[in-house]
Design a protein that fits this description.
This protein has seven helices and no strands. α4 packs parallel to α6. It has one domain. The protein is mostly helical and 130 residues long. It starts with a helix and ends in a 7-residue tail after the last helix. It is globular.
């Protein structure tokens, strides 16, 4: 996976001169839908699967849109969903359905990533790891 580091630096207002491992962990947690690194470390299997799907589908829905959608849905149903229900909702509404596209930044370089996957299939080797 390749990332648009410039977009991440700007979006997360990163001070490059004082960047720490803790900053990196915080950004990674935020990119996959967690508020803090410790939340990611203690997440359930369903929450981790959801976070991967959120990351893989950021072109369809960004974290903030998902959180707003989830909050509205929980409010309308007058209940707080468990992680397994959140995962099923995401799969049903966003991951397995085309037609929804986010207007937020996608921090992944999609064209480069697709090119490398196609190249891997043809050669049977991962680029850069020969």
């Amino acid at each position: 996976m390749f990332f648009d580091v410039d977009a991440i630096l700007i979006s997360f207002d990163i001070d490059q001169d004082n960047f720490t491992l803790m900053n990196a962990q915080h950004i990674i947690a935020n990119l996959v839908g967690f508020g803090k690194w410790t939340e990611l470390l203690s997440a359930s299997e369903d929450a981790l699967e959801l976070s991967k799907l959120l990351f893989d589908n950021m072109h369809k829905i960004c974290i903030e849109e998902w959180q707003d959608y989830l909050a509205r849905t929980e409010h309308e149903n007058q209940m707080e969903f468990e992680d397994d229900m959140k995962l099923e909702i995401f799969k049903t509404v966003f991951a397995e359905v085309d037609g929804h596209y986010s207007f937020r930044l996608d921090y992944r370089f999609q064209k480069l990533n697709r090119f490398l996957r196609k190249s891997e299939k043809k050669t049977g080797q991962k680029e850069g790891f020969h």
